[in-house]
């Protein structure tokens, strides 16, 4: 059996700050705020020398670690097609439903959101007039997309009058990520094994503030015990499934994640990817 030789890379975490005003909730603005109003009240810092392990052959099991890799039939899934929302609904999501349910043993999947990300050449900065500069960019700091409070606040809008019926079964909230072309060697997504996370000490609640809404998420403090994984040379026919919430286990297996720079090991066109957020029911 091949030995996993991890990459040494840089990952961005929340900076620990004993002087931060704890009376003010941490926030980050996703729009231009008032003049002289700070865009955030916490800092992100790079941590170097982080070991990044391969998911391939790792033996990681979804039921124990919240991470799984599934195959999907990507025939006819040219990257340009993903710019058409109607095609995503009719051409991509049905295939994704089958792949995810087969891999997880779920009976049903209900998608509530998806997002395309297209890295601009100037990333992480933005240059006016540059291709894809206005598109969503890869996310560089370790995070979890929801807190329990945030999920509970969304359930009525997701299910309406069917809420009690839908949530009477065991369910999970998951993310499904794939590059639009592969092998992906440009800012791939990486994942912390949640078993290596100390939720009390490592997770930091933050409001992501948009013009009309604020979403509560977790950013992550560095912990040398974190064990990081990624899927090397991920193909467009491979999706990574990772857990965000389980109706029986809460966020015990919620997977922190972010993109990272492969540096000398990277190559290829700027990354384009799609992430889908969904409920799966058992």
Automatic annotation (TrEMBL):
Lineage of origin: Eukaryota, Fungi, Dikarya, Ascomycota, Pezizomycotina
GO MF term set: oxidoreductase activity
InterPro entries in the record: AsaB-like
Family statement: Belongs to the asaB hydroxylase/desaturase family.
Superkingdom in the source lineage: Eukaryota
Name by which UniProt lists this protein: Methyltransferase
Organism (species): Immersiella caudata
């Amino acid at each position: 059996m091949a030995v996993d030789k991890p990459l040494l890379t840089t990952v961005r975490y929340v900076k620990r700050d004993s002087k931060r005003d704890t009376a003010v909730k941490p926030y980050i603005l996703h729009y231009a705020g008032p003049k002289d109003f700070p865009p955030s009240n916490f800092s992100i810092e790079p941590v170097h020398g982080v070991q990044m392990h391969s998911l391939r052959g790792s033996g990681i099991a979804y039921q124990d670690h919240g991470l799984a890799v599934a195959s999907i039939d990507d025939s006819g899934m040219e990257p340009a097609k993903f710019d058409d929302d109607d095609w995503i609904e009719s051409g991509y999501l049905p295939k994704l439903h089958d792949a995810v349910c087969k891999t997880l043993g779920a009976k049903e999947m209900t998608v509530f959101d998806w997002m395309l990300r297209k890295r601009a050449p100037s990333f992480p900065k933005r240059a006016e007039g540059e291709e894809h500069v206005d598109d969503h960019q890869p996310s560089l700091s370790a995070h979890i997309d929801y807190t329990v409070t945030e999920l509970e606040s969304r359930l009525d809008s997701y299910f309406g009058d069917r809420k009690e019926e839908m949530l009477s079964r065991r369910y999970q909230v998951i993310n499904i990520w794939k590059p639009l072309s592969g092998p992906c060697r440009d800012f791939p997504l990486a994942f912390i094994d949640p078993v290596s996370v100390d939720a009390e000490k490592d997770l930091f609640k933050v409001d992501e503030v948009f013009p009309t809404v604020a979403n509560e998420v977790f950013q992550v403090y560095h912990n040398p015990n974190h064990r990081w994984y990624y899927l090397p040379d991920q193909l467009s026919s491979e999706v990574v499934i990772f857990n965000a919430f389980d109706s029986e286990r809460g966020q015990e297996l919620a997977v922190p994640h972010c993109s990272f720079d492969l540096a000398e090991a990277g190559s290829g066109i700027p990354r384009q990817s799609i992430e889908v957020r969904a409920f799966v029911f058992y």
